Amino acid sequence: MKKRIAILTGGGDCPGLNAVIRAIVRRSILFHDYEVLGILEGWKGMLEAISVPLDLEKVSGILQRGGTILKTSRTNPFKQQGGLEKVKENFAALDLHALIAAGGEDTLGVASRLHQEGLNLIGVPKTIDNDLYGTDYTFGFDTAVNTAMEAIDRVHSTAESHNRVMVVEVMGRHTGWIAVEAGIAGGADLILIPEKPIDVDNACELIKKRHARGRDFSIVVVAEGAKFSEKHQEEGKLILQDRALDEFGHVHLGGIGNVLAKAIEKRTGYETRVVILGHVQRGGSPTAFDRILGTRFGIKAVDLVHAGDFGKMVSLQGNKIVAVPLSEATARIKTVDEELYGIAEAFFG
Ligand code: F6P
Predict the structure, then answer these.
(1) Which residues are 192's β-sheet partners?
(2) Euclidean distance between CA atoms 321 and 341, whole angstroms
(3) Is the pLDDT of residue 258 over 70?
(4) Does residue 164 register a pLDDT over 70?
(5) Is the CB of 275 under 6 A from ligand 1?
(6) Domains and CATH numbers, the chain
(7) Is the full-model pTM beyond 0.90?
(8) In the predicted model, what is the mean pLDDT of residues 78-83?
(9) Where are the alpha helices (DSSP H) in 99-255?
């Protein structure tokens, strides 16, 4: 009797998920002779036992497609009455040997708890935010950075033509990875991130200094989770799109760019405009880096199943794919590296 394994994708989608699914299916069928099921819509699919069989045909031609063929949700089984029991029941009813979950801190946090409950779980780190602890990079991040960089390149010419300050707001939740990497790559004149509360007076001095040097325009990249420092709290606290929390307790961020633009215009007198990139960063075809990383993660995840090495997350460390305990990877988030921010700062003003 063949062993049966399943895959699910949870949380916000990102480019590269289909590369992971394709690699898992091919490795499972061709190397280990497993049967593979796709669980639909993340943990919601495990609560409701909604699955589809996956074969080589189903994963053919999906490598370059963004999103996830398995769909996703932000469902948290631990927030549902009897959710844990339901997941355990369906794990048994679907006759699963193991489940591979691709997701960020929330999805993998659930995977970690389910492993502690005795289920065979493996995690694959996915998020455009790159904020998962225990891996140098998550897949999806590189594509988001490239999309944001291209947007920054494009606003440069219009900023220059109009002598304007352009504020570009990027995603990243409570970390500034996208802002820092896209900002460095796009030649931003100022990058503001959640890890460093914004001293808006200082920020404006840097912009004025640049303009005094004869550069009549500036590009400011701000991460959605950034907020003003204490002395300017009233002007720019953490900006939320709404107050409702999702099932993992997260607020819906977005809009700090507008507040920042007003503050800059008021202090400098320079005309300022805002671009909020939003979900554009999550869409589209994955970069080569994300396709390759997703593929390497998928292969390693199946090999861990084969080795019976459960409760692990596949991870990129240096240039090697390794396995780290899910419990460690989900214990905290990975914030922006000081040294990297220092490199960005060398180009401010
Ligand atoms: O975690 C990925 C992410 O895109 C964050 O950068 C952002 O804050 C959040 O998801 C947006 O979530 P939603 O898709 O639910 O609006």
Answers:
(1) 222
(2) 26
(3) yes
(4) yes
(5) no
(6) 4-139+286-329 (3.40.50.450), 142-282 (3.40.50.460)
(7) yes
(8) 96
(9) 105-116, 141-162, 177-186, 200-212
Residue 129 among the catalytic residues:
yes
Phi, psi of 115 (to 5 degrees): -65, -40
Q: Identify the CA nearest to 63 among candidates 25, 30, 101, 97.
A: 25
Ligand 1 in reach of 127 Cβ (< 6 A): yes
Give yes or no for residue 12 CB within 6 A of ligand 1: yes
Tokens for 241, please give them.
């799109």
**Candidate list 129, 131, 189, 290, residue with the active-site label:** 129
C-alpha of residue 239 to centroid of ligand 1, in Å: 14
Instruction: Look up residue 212 and give its two tokens.
Output: 């005094």
- Cα-based torsion angle of the residue sequence 87, 88, 91, 95 in order, rounded to the nearest 10 degrees: -150
Give dist(CA 211, CA 270) in Å, integer.
Answer: 10
Task: Pick the residue whose CA is nearest to atom 2 on ligand 1.
Answer: 12
Residue 270 CA, ligand 1 centroid: distance in Å = 31
Both tokens assigned to 272: 């300022």
Q: Virtual CA dihedral for 172, 279, 41, 286, nearest 10 degrees?
A: -80
Residue (of 48, 58, 45, 63) closest to 7 by Cα position: 45
Whether the per-residue pLDDT at 171 is higher than 80: the answer is: yes
Q: What b/e string do you get for 180-215 counting C-beta neighbours within 10 Å, with b at 16 or more? A: bbbbbebebbbbbbbbbbbebeebbebbbebbeeee
Cα angle at 103 between 97 and 105, to 5 degrees?
115
Tell me: pLDDT of 117 over 80.
Answer: yes
For residues 259 and 270, give the distance between their C-alpha atoms in angstroms, rounded to a whole number: 15
Confidence of residue 236 (pLDDT cuts 50, 70, 90): low
Task: Extract the tokens encoding 227.
Answer: 């907020």
**Crossing angle of the two packed helices 17-32 and 288-307, in degrees rounded to 10:** 40
For residue 172, the ligand 1 atom closest to its alpha carbon is 6
Residue closest via CA to ligand 1's atom 14 equals: 12
Segment among 9-18, 236-245, 261-270, 274-283 with least mean pLDDT = 236-245
